[in-house]
Amino acid sequence: MKPFAAPVDDILFTLTEVGGAASLHDWDGDLMREITQAFASFAEGEIAPLDEVGDTQGCRLEDGRVIMPDGFKQAYADYAEQGWPGLTVPEEYDGQGMGGVALACVSEVFSGANHSMQMVTGLVPGAVRTLLDYGTEAQKSAYIPRMASGEWLSTMCLTEPGAGSDLGRIRARAVQDGDAWKITGEKIFISGGDQDMTDEIFHLVLARTGDADSGVKGLSLFICLSHLPDGSRNPITVTRIEEKMGLHASPTCQMAFDGVQAELIGEEGAGLKAMFTMMNHARIDVALQGVAHATRAHDIAAAYCAERVQGRGADGQPATLDQHADVRNMLNEMRALSLLGRAISHLAIVELEKESDPMLVEFLTPIAKHFCTESASRAADLGIQCLGGYGYLQEYRVEQVWRDARICRIYEGASGIHALTLTTRLLQGRAAEAADRFAAFTGANAPAEAVAHWTRARAALAGSTDAAAKAADFMALSEWLLLRALAPRFQSHAAAPEIASYLARNDYMGAVLSDRICAG
Ligand SMILES: Cc1cc2nc3c(=O)[nH]c(=O)nc-3n(C[C@H](O)[C@H](O)[C@H](O)COP(=O)(O)OP(=O)(O)OC[C@H]3O[C@@H](n4cnc5c(N)ncnc54)[C@H](O)[C@@H]3O)c2cc1C
User: Fold this and answer.
1) Residue 127 — very low, low, confident or very high, per pLDDT cuts 50/70/90?
2) Cβ-contact 320, 307 below 8 angstroms
3) 328 pLDDT exceeds 90?
4) Which end of the chain is less enclosed by CB atoms within 10 A, N or C?
């Protein structure tokens, strides 16, 4: 199996040449390379070797506590010892005060090395951000330093058996008990709901404070600590760990909340708004998980295809797989999906950090989440195909990439939900400014003919009563256009020919998608 190698040069290339990171007021390219390289060395040496162990062993529930696979506890202790949990935590709360771009670099490398472990540790920055935006001073100073030091990990508890994409159906109930709150209910699918890498856990829980039919307006956000100040356990129980197709080392927990002591964070009834602070960043983080998988799949396949000899080339000599046109097309596509996906994510994260064009970020975020996660599955699938029968075996681990990557298209908003957001909400009323900002960006960077396909489709959808049925096509068309706006920025990259070849093979799609959206 090819050992994991972090794509540090590619990450730095897209950040600067495509994402425009140099326009950030505190940009320091040398420092960013240093941080990314330092984490890459740690990930390659210590985290990545646990990926196969985790996949094989999985997590287990013993006496009500979740036990992580061998080696995870020590690797996490080293991760905390090196200060990585506090990377983006402000210095006043004992962190290092780096911005979201540094987190994006580290996060992608982490996901490529070991997606399961990244899942369990990766919710801390979002929890800290939620505390910074909505917490009281007392909450910030009590909780943030314990996450910055790595002493605590955190979770995000939204999903329930009857409430997945539709959080308005949440039933977990919070009632006031004097100055405190108590939560009773059930949550499912909670990543890292328990683990043995930290002694205590910080849970962010969405629960109902309004009446049963108050929808999302009756939801509030709460802090629930796994342990109470006297050291006893808050009554939060993991009732089972789900069996899954992948991510075996990320415990996906079913949890019972039985009169759990909770603290309100933010305003009562404004829980979803506060939760979205966490989710918007989480979506770009998931996009980068997709990029990491596409990159890893390509890396494994390219190495294999450069060595395996089958058939003969045009000169009659024995040829390696990558000399055959069909295999080369597959490798080109994988490489392009990985680089272009990272480009979209970096553009979104840099714009998010700049805070100067929030409506453009609104439009880019669903595209990044959708494109990168769909591309991860496609690239992993092509990776298996490139390796032939060996791709289907466990030996080269590309089948693990395929299994682990699959969830990215479902959590943090399933692909269909993001397509729907783009095609309905972001084309209407005041939110349509997001589409205007996207039109301005692509208009300035993509060929006029490509922009015309999208503009025509947008106009047709604005007057359509059936926009939802065309959501997948409009998402695909928006992605197609954005790739054409970003591709010229790869001119000086060694993989520019692979990107050009991939885009040329899909050039016809703009007209097809636009015609289909405008028909009927
Ligand atoms: C491994 C894993 C980890 C997870 N981690 C967490 C976690 O840490 N915390 C947490 O709270 N949750 C977590 N989840 C839950 C995850 O966020 C949900 O699975 C996701 O939100 C989708 O909800 P659902 O599974 O109920 O699917 P559903 O909502 O039932 O959707 C099923 C399908 O129908 C489509 N659909 C649904 N509604 C609509 C609509 N209105 N219009 C059009 N199409 C629609 C969706 O696009 C999807 O394709 C995790 C799930 C898994 C599997």
Assistant:
1) very high
2) yes
3) yes
4) C
Contact 153, 206 (CB under 8 A): no
Nearest CA to ligand 1 atom 51: 189
CA–CA gap between residue 168 and residue 432 (Å, rounded): 24
Instruction: Report how far residue 439's alpha carbon sits from residue 453's, in angstroms, rounded to the nearest whole number.
Output: 12
- Confidence tier at 520 by pLDDT (50, 70, 90): confident
Nearest-CA residue for ligand 1 atom 12 is 159
**Pocket probe mutation, ligand 1, options 118, 124, 189, 470, max atoms within 8 Å of Cβ:** 189
Q: Which segments of 388-470 does DSSP mark as H helices, in order?
A: 389-392, 398-405, 415-423, 432-445, 448-462
Atom 14 of ligand 1: nearest residue by CA position: 189
Is 10 buried (19+), middle (13-18) or exposed (0-12) by CB count in 10 A? buried
Q: Which residues line ligand 1 (CB under 6 A)?
A: 156-159, 164-165, 189-191, 244, 247, 252, 407, 410-411, 414, 416-417, 420
Encoding tokens for residue 324? 């055959």
Average pLDDT value for residue range 472-485: 98
Domain boundaries, the chain: 8-148, 152-269, 414-520
Q: Has residue 382 got a pLDDT over 90? A: yes
pLDDT tens for 134-167 read: 999 999 999 999 999 999 999 999 999 999 999 9
Of the candidates 221, 217, 193, 219, the one whose C-alpha atom is nearest the C-alpha of residue 208 is: 219
User: For residues 251 and 195, is the Cβ–Cβ distance under 8 A?
Assistant: yes
Question: Ligand 1 centroid to 419 CA: how many Å?
Answer: 14
Please report, for the chain, how many H helices and E strands are present, in that order. 18, 11
Shortest-distance Cα residue to atom 25 of ligand 1? 164
- List, by residue number, the catalytic residues: 412
Q: How far is the CA of 159 from the centre of ligand 1 (A)?
A: 8
Confidence bin at 464 (pLDDT 50/70/90):
confident
Atom of ligand 1 nearest to the CA of 159: 11
pLDDT digits (tens, 9 = 90+) for 92-118: 999 999 999 999 999 999 999 999 999
CA of 336 relative to ligand 1 center, distance in Å: 28
Question: What's the pLDDT band for 444 if we cut at 50, 70, 90?
Answer: very high
Please say whether the structural domain 152-269 has been given the CATH code 1.20.1250.20: no
Closest CA to 289 of 417, 411, 128, 153: 411
Best mutation site among 410, 418, 423 for ligand 1 pocket (most ligand atoms within 8 Å of CB): 410
Give the pLDDT confidence score for residue 465 in this predicted structure. Answer: 85
Q: Closest Cα to atom 24, ligand 1: which residue? A: 164
277: pLDDT strictly greater than 80: no
